[in-house]
Amino acid sequence: METASDRIVVALDGPAGVGKSTVAMAIARELSLTYVETGAIYRAVAYKARNEGIPLDDLTGVAGIARTIDITFRVEGDLNRVFLDGQDVTFALRSQDVSPLASKVSAQAGVRAALLDVQRSLARSGRGAVAEGRDIGTVVFPDAPFKFFLTADVRTRALRRFHQLEEMGRRPVLAELEDEIAARDRQDTERAVAPLKAAPDAVILDTSRLTAAQVIQAILERIRTACAG
Ligand code: DC
Known about the structure:
Elements: E1 8-13, H1 20-31, E2 34-37, H2 38-51, H3 59-67, E3 71-76, E4 79-84, E5 87-88, H4 90-93, H5 98-105, H6 109-123, E6 128-133, H7 136-140, E7 146-151, H8 154-167, H9 174-190, E8 203-206, H10 212-228
Parallel strand pairs: 1-6, 1-7, 2-6, 7-8
Antiparallel strand pairs: 3-4, 4-5
Helix pairs in contact: 1-10, 2-3, 2-5, 3-6, 5-9, 8-9
2'-deoxycytidine-5'-monophosphate is lined by residues 16, 38-40, 42-43, 102-103, 106, 133-136, 184, 188.
């Protein structure tokens, strides 16, 4: 199995809407590491399958998309731009109708197996990476020297998503976001393959009462202390 043992890998896992992206991007910037948003890869598979008219229950067809996915990232300020087959799909992938589809394809063993290499090769560039997702510390990079698992209650996560969407000019409904997050939690934690869970050696941070800046600070302190020691 390939790991990035010669590079720094920071694994950042947690449920939907917990603020992983904000935190992961800041850590990557601060430590000059590559930021790998693995959720965007699952979203891209679902999005492409839908656009190509491949039903999500066609396991072979969807796994084929995952195996050949051409995805790249480019961080611009606070935005992680995502390019699928060279096209900017940043906002399309985050739309509310893609989220449940992504959760569905992410439960497929063939998709997860195909995306292991994709995720590992994205993290291979430069000095290493901050990879965020659901199974980074448990499956994708089980040997990562730094593993963090962020949690927060459903209400707090829905409110965070609400503000994010408002900033993007949308008019979200809070109760709908809460339902959607709770449903995705269920799907992500109950699936048979690589369910959402903290690695036994991950540091668990409940962020419900912390600002993003405090979470970033706490993580950076742990990494810097470990690197200095
Ligand atoms: O982080 P996100 O909301 O963009 O992720 C979209 C979906 O992909 C989510 O339902 C869980 C799934 N996912 C996963 O199963 N494993 C990962 N490493 C990342 C995301």
